[in-house]
Specification:
The protein contains 14 helices and seven strands. The protein is α+β, with helices and mostly antiparallel strands. The strands form two sheets. Strands 2-3-1-6-7 form a five-stranded mixed β-sheet, with helices on both faces. Strands 4-5 form a two-stranded antiparallel ribbon. Helix 6 packs antiparallel against helix 7, helix 9 packs across helix 10 and helix 10 crosses helix 11. The chain binds guanosine-5'-triphosphate.
Length: about 400
């Protein structure tokens, strides 16, 4: 391959510095997502490492500048790993990239002072780069929801290419005769490895940006579909889920049951104890309801102090059993807020598609009517829509 190594080095160094700025800018709007600043630092150090190595054009090269270049570049990859861990889990030991830098400096200094063998130094550096890039790839090949998985695996694949390239470089130099390797020697290995390395490094940065982009959009989607106070689905996402279920049930002929839950005398709770206590009552009801439902059921805050549960493949009788249990557990539990202890109750209305039809609005109206029946009958009870229909 007739590629000029120096031009490539300048290009890759300049691109790395540019990517560092790009990632730093992206990190400014990453909210609570961690790791992007560390990726930016990683690119900066990689760029500087290459720039320092570039200054050693041909003999006589200053070995200490090359030591500095290798240390910076390896520290850069260490920061990429640090950022990836932070992005994934929100936590990583801060000393890790410094440990990589320390190891790189120690290894390179050893080969300058005690064992001045360029072959051995390049093999050792290649193996270090191989190791850290392989660890980065291993961090990213994990099972997770789409589309984040695509971004993770794309970045992981790019790290793998880089790791494979460094391993290949180490093996080729190991097998070649002594005193034949030099950074600027005209051997095909140099341009090939710098070309692949540069491309893979670019792909890694694109992967980081893609990961950030998908994570932000997933977070926005989650925010738009959940209720901020209780963390359960909001009305909008419940309606979406219901229409998806109903479209399927129209074809399959399955039944759907709906439960409307309303806290009794909630205004009085707010007036007597304050809105914070009222909020705590809603959170407590959410916790009780979440424990009562099955994995396939959908719990949502429908508005104010009203909650709705969708029970797929269920009829009123199933819903009644669940509603009765929920009502009893809620009424029997005490809610504590800043030393205040109080009890509360709920009225529940239930309906199913056998009586109200396979239409979400008519199901909701039916469950709501049943809930008001429960209120009229004295509250703290469960009422069925079919009872009023039969009557
Ligand atoms: N603390 C708190 N209160 C809320 C929230 N959303 C709505 N509310 C209050 O909930 C109360 C609902 O009162 P009403 O609709 O009169 O019902 P109620 O007092 O529960 O009476 P019944 O339903 O007939 O038993 C109102 O005072 C609203 O201000 C919320 O997110 N937090």
């Amino acid at each position: 391959m007739n590629l000029d190594l120096r031009t490539m080095m300048v290009m890759i160094a300049a691109l790395s510095l540019l990517f560092s700025g790009l990632l730093a800018l992206a990190g400014l709007h990453a909210g609570s997502i961690r790791g992007v600043r560390q990726w930016a630092t990683g690119s900066l150090l990689l760029g500087l490492g290459l720039a320092f190595s570039y200054t050693q054009l041909g003999p006589p090269a200053n070995p200490w500048i090359l030591v500095l270049g290798a240390t910076l570049a390896l520290a850069g990859t260490g920061f990429q790993y640090y950022g990836t861990r932070l992005f994934k889990t929100g936590y990583c030991n801060a000393y890790l990239p410094w440990l990589v830098a320390g190891a790189a400096f120690a290894v390179n200094s050893w080969f300058v002072v005690l064992h001045p063998d360029i072959h051995a130094r390049v093999i050792a550096n290649s193996l270090l780069f191989f190791l850290i890039n392989a660890i980065c790839a291993h961090e990213l090949f994990i099972r997770m929801e789409q589309p984040l998985r695509t971004a993770y695996w794309f970045t992981g694949a790019s790290f793998s290419v880089l790791a494979a390239m460094f391993l290949f470089r180490a093996v080729v130099i190991f097998l070649s005769p002594d005193n034949t390797y030099g950074l600027y020697t005209q051997i095909p290995l140099n341009p090939i490895s710098f070309f692949i390395g540069g491309m893979a490094q670019m792909a890694i940065v694109f992967g980081f940006v893609l990961m950030l982009n998908y994570r932000l959009s997933a977070d926005h989607q989650r925010l738009a579909s959940t209720d901020a106070l209780t963390g359960v689905m909001n009305r909008r996402s419940l309606e979406l889920e219901a229409s998806r279920l109903l479209a399927r049930y129209v074809r399959s002929g399955e039944t759907l049951a709906v439960m409307m839950i309303d806290v009794d005398h909630f205004k009085t709770i707010n007036d007597r104890y304050g809105h914070m206590v009222g909020d705590e009552v809603l959170r407590h009801l959410t916790a009780v309801a979440q424990k009562s439902i099955r994995t396939g059921d959908y719990l949502a805050r429908y508005g104010g102090e009203e909650f709705c549960i969708l029970l797929p493949a269920s009829v009123e009788r199933d819903a009644w059993t669940l509603a009765e249990r929920l009502r009893q557990v809620f009424a029997g539990s005490e809610i504590e807020y800043c030393g205040e202890m109080l009890r509360s109750t709920v009225s529940i209305g239930i309906a199913d598609s056998t009586h109200a039809g396979l239409n979400f609005v008519s199901l909701l109206v039916a469950a709501d009517k049943a809930m008001y029946q429960a209120k009229l009958a004295g509250r703290n009870r469960v009422s069925r829509h079919s009872n009023s229909v039969d009557a």
